[in-house]
Amino acid sequence: MLTKEVNAQARDGGRPERSGAERSEASRSGGLAPSAPSAPGLEVGPPATSTRPAAAQPDPEVSPKPRRRTYRVAYKLRILKEIDACTQSGQIGAIVRREGLYSSAPTRWRRERQKGILAGLSPRKRGPKVNPADAQLTQENQQLRRDNQRLQRRLQQAEVIIDVQKKISEILGIPLKSPESEGSDS
Q: What are the sequence ranges of the domains in the chain?
């Protein structure tokens, strides 16, 4: 029996005998079937060029910035309406799987709908929230800074004028009253 299998393998080029239901390695992997080497020491490997088109191969690179999925209000309301109409167990799970959603999304949408249909379901701006009181304080702070700069410029002009008056009074020999003597006159 063993010699019969060995003879069959030698006749088929060294490949074992297969039944009709078995597939070869090449048919399972989509490649070409290996054949017996034509010359001793010469190995047959995969073809040098791929037979698959380049577009069929997925891009292995991950996108540099993941994009958050956003849903329109009409879509959210449609899904919630479908979920509210469910009467049997497993129907909600089927809808969630069909739409590719996490189970928490419809729950969150339902809560938002209860708070206010359109206001709760519209996409929210991400990031730090701005408090209206803080916005008013910021505006007031900016106004005070502008006033401070304006007064600083006026003070510099007044100091220049005072310095010029002092120099003119020295040149002309006119004595100026000092601020200390004005306070002691009364």
A: 73-121
Q: Residue 119 CB: number of other CB atoms within 10 A?
A: 11
The per-residue pLDDT for range 80-111, each reduced to its tens digit, is 999 999 989 899 999 999 999 998 999 988 88
Q: Spell out the residues 6+ positions from residue 16 whose beta carbon is closer than 8 angstroms to its own.
A: 5, 9
Residue at 10: amino acid letter:
A
CA distance 82 to 104: 16
Distance CA(54)–CA(184), nearest Å, equals: 98
Buried b (16+ CB within 10 A) or exposed e, 46-55: eeeeeeeeee
Structure tokens at 3: 């010699």
Rounded CA gap, 12 and 135, in Å?
Answer: 86
Residue 68 C-alpha from the chain's centroid: 6
pTM of the model: 0.34
CA distance 158 to 150: 13
What is the three-class DSSP state of 45?
coil
d(CA 77, CA 118): 10
Give the burial string for 125-145 (b: 16+ CB within 10 Å, else e): eeeeeeeeeeeeeeeeeeeee
